[in-house]
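Hi F.,

I've been meaning to write this up properly since the lab meeting, where we talked about keeping a consistent format for the predictions we share between groups. The idea is simple: the sequence comes first, exactly as it goes in, then the structure tokens exactly as they come out, then a line or two of notes. No screenshots and no reformatting. I'm using this chain as the first example so we have something concrete to point to.
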Amino acid sequence: MTSPVQVFHPESDSRYLIYAEGLFGRTTSKTANMLIRYIPERVACVVDSRCGGKKVREVISNLPGDIPVVADIDAGMQYDPTHLVVGVAPTGGQLPEAWRDPLKHAITQGLHLVSGLHTFLTEDDEFRSLAAQHSVTLIDLRKPPVITEISQGLWRERTIPVVLTVGPDSAVGKLTAAWEFKRQLEQRGYTVGLAATGQTGILLNGEGIVVDAVRGDFISAATELLIESQLERGPDVVLVEGQGSIYHEAFSAVTLGILHGAMPDALLFSHRPSRRANVYGFTFPPYRQMINDYEAIIERYKPTRTLGIQIDTSEYDQNIAGSLCEEIQNITGLPTVDFVRNGESPGVEQIIHNLRLA
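Output, unedited:
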């Protein structure tokens, strides 16, 4: 069977104009923010007419660098981008009608288009024709692969540990937790595989499958295939990027599909403490109950454990952030850190120790 993994390996000199019109912000532009934080050398500029003329850090204080925010695509062309990357996901993941003309204009400027939306540019006759005229590539990261078999339970034969990031809600830092944990492990000499399950993870990692676009029966199989593709390279550990939450009624189906496909040996819990309820107004259970609930889903099949907790404290000053970590650690008995803000914390070493790698 041909590998279903979506691969994205742009040229080494590629530069991204990130399109985030009307939505560039701390919680509304996850893809843009992750690219700016982790591959800033690739980001030429961000497009959002509300913030044109500012620098990224003036809009989102915890992001690094002096990357410019511009009012439109024409203003961004002075920074020599090669690709337009859609840096936000509007509700429902559909392409807003107001974005069609700007994206078509980007094609006429010679920019390759990279999109993680549920609307596929490669299936739109207008975009496809225009791209052909201007020798531009359209890349739909969310386009689902062809998978025809359900998961095979390959976890029963695994000897390499698999860690899944989970949390109480969407957009609470599950990819951040996986990516930061990967860096921490690699700094200590471990070889780490990453199974990217969303479009942002693919952009950072170079490959993956956007599992929320896969047919329901095959979500677990897609996750299993991602893990197997990493295991073939002989890593010390495989990290799986979690999606959604068992507490989010809109996205829990994807969350459970990943849980059952990954059958993780360990979990890394991720949260943004300032968020106390989901978009439907349902408040989250206590930390320990949430952790127990996630573990219980897997313990029906095999033992699992939670290594620790990664929290996003970017909305708090240093003193409050430290108090939050200490409070959550006391409540749960698990090391609690903000990987981004305090990657040198002793808690990071304790989380790695809890993984029990040889």
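Notes:
The chain has two domains: 6-140, 154-355.
The longest helix spans residues 318-332.

If this format works for you, I'll send the rest the same way.

G.
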